[in-house]
Amino acid sequence: MSVNQYRRINFWTAILGQILSPFPAFLMAVAFMGKPAGKIS
Fold it and tell me: Which residue has the higher pLDDT, 33 or 7?
């Protein structure tokens, strides 16, 4: 992986982190809902 790609990934990770940080409960719900129903129990 080139340094440029790494920087771009770092950049987007930081932006997504800033956008999504107020929504931890929402993200947990999405992750929970995204799992197959059989795996929950």
Answer: 7
Note down the domain range covering 36: 3-40
| pTM, entire model | 0.39
Separation between Cα atoms, residue 19 and residue 9, nearest integer Å: 15
Structural domain count of the chain: 1
CA angle 21, 23, 28 (to 5 degrees): 110
Tokens 């993200």 map to which residue?
27
Tokens of 35: 């799992």
